[in-house]
Amino acid sequence: QVQLVESGGGFVQPGESLKLSCAASGFIGTFSTYVMRWYRQTPGKERELVASIDMTGRNTNYADSVKGRFTISRNDARKTAFLRMNSLKPEGTAVYFCNARYLNHGDGSWGQGTQVTVSS
Fold first, then answer.
1. CB contact burial 11-28 (16+ within 10 A = b; e otherwise)
2. Do 15 and 87 contact (CB within 8 A), yes or no?
3. Element (H, E) at 96
4. 3-56 pLDDT, tens per residue?
């Protein structure tokens, strides 16, 4: 079972930036065999897919709401995925979760989440 630990959340003002990290351990094979995703969730709403990165690290996808402002990346040697968030907006306030799926199968594993609050 993969263990994921997110970090880097916090309280920022609109327009500021944060970089989230997702450190992985306990996985099958190597970290590079996992597709990594970032989701976010606010109270009363379903979890929303924010960004994904494939096993090669060359292909990424983003929700329309974050395109051009967020960047997902991975460092396989460090077994860590990242989400760089620029120009944050108040609607970006949420708990952010990372997800790891071995060979992109099944539901994958989840971290405990990290809170991001964007407010003036």
1. ebeeeeebebbbebeebe
2. yes
3. strand 94-102
4. 999 999 999 999 999 999 999 998 777 999 999 999 999 999 999 999 999 999
